[in-house]
Write a structure and sequence with these properties.
Layout (H helix, E strand, L loop, with lengths): L9 E12 L4 E7 L1 H5 L6 E5 L10 E4 L2 E3 L2 E7 L3 H7 L6 E8 L11 E7 L3 H10 L8 E6 L8 H4 L5 E6 L6 E2 L2 H10 L6 E6 L2 H14 L2 E5 L15 E4 L2 E4 L6 E3 L6
Parallel strand pairs: 8-9, 8-12, 9-10, 10-11, 12-13
Antiparallel strand pairs: 1-2, 1-7, 2-6, 3-4, 3-7, 5-6, 13-16, 14-15
Helix pairs in contact: 5-6
Bound molecules: flavin-adenine dinucleotide and FE2/S2 (inorganic) cluster (FES).
Length: 264
């Protein structure tokens, strides 16, 4: 991973190398791009055009999950028409990607210990971050929330993650029973909560609960706000987020915002 100029982006038609299910929740899509792979940071995303016809019209934003040399990997959940069509693509099919887009997560944390909290479609960018965490004094801790054991990522997908990964499942079939915030609260209650720096991405309700706990324990952090997006480049204002400095576009000024900037 190299330093990036966040204003540089590429519009590229790429060939799919792999597109397969990795568990009950996610598919993994792999393509090769020399230019896009060189300029990528955790928390950034590509805006992917699923079909070269006008249906579906809008591109779909997907975070970088892993980059190995020129190989770019995305991890996605099928939620609607766009991702269902994407899941049908085979090796050799072409898709158009615009990226890298967006403002990434912070790499250096001023001596604080990294605490990653993810759920649903928010897990992939945090996995990227967990693989690329620098040489920090204390290894990061990654808390993942999901519905049940079938959504737990296979070990091979976590093999390069630095630090500890803890799961919470809503039905209690794996790890802690309940929401990921149960794990978060337990961790913050131990030791000095202010030694942590939280980086989080997931459903809006999860982000609100994480930020509420962070405020309660006086912990700083950043959240990636996955608003619905259209253009992905700041032109349509379809993805605005309310911040203390007024409305900002999630696709250009975010998706990663400091807890201090976010309202609510
Ligand atoms: C910056 C960013 C990064 C993202 N990274 C990933 C990723 O790495 N992997 C991944 O699987 N998804 C990611 N998403 C979400 C992904 O873009 C949506 O799931 C996708 O666009 C849905 O398209 P669709 O046509 O399948 O569903 P649609 O028919 O458009 O929507 C179906 C349902 O999907 C859900 N949905 C749609 N958009 C979002 C969203 N932005 N966030 C949460 N739920 C949504 C809603 O419940 C909606 O009702 C990201 C979104 C953003 C904004
Ligand atoms: S998606 Fe168009 S401004 Fe953000």
């Amino acid at each position: 991973m190299t330093d990036v100029d966040e204003k540089v982006m590429y519009d590229e038609t790429v060939t799919i190398l792999e597109n397969q299910k990795v568990n009950a929740q996610y598919y993994k899509l792999v393509f090769s791009s020399k230019r896009i792979s060189r300029r990528v940071r955790a928390g950034q995303f590509v805006n992917l055009q699923v079909e070269d016809s006008s249906d579906p019209l809008l591109r779909r934003p997907l975070s970088y999950y892993r980059v190995r040399s020129e190989r770019v990997e995305l991890l996605y959940e099928v939620l609607g028409r766009g991702t269902a069509l994407l899941a049908q693509k085979k090796r050799g099919h072409k898709v158009n990607v615009l990226g890298p887009l967006g403002h990434p997560f912070s790499q250096t944390l001023n001596g604080k210990r990294r605490l990653l909290v993810g759920g649903g479609v928010g897990v992939p960018p945090l996995l990227f971050l967990a693989e690329h965490a620098g040489r920090e004094k204390h290894a990061p801790v990654f808390l993942i929330g999901c519905k049940s054991k079938g959504e737990v990522l296979p070990k091979r997908e976590l093999s390069n993650v630095k630090g500890e990964v803890l799961y919470a499942t809503e039905d209690g079939s794996y790890g802690q029973r309940g929401l990921v915030t149960v794990l978060l609260q337990k961790l913050l209650e131990k030791g000095d909560p202010k030694s942590w720096f939280i980086q989080t991405c997931g459903p809006h309700a999860m982000l609100a609960a994480v930020m509420k706990l962070a405020r309660q324990f006086g912990v700083e952090g950043e959240a990636s706000i996955d608003e619905r997006m259209a253009c992905g480049v700041g032109a349509c204002l379809g993805c605005v987020v309310e911040t203390r400095e007024g409305f900002k576009t999630s696709c250009v000024e975010g998706p990663v915002f400091s807890f201090r900037d976010l309202v609510g």
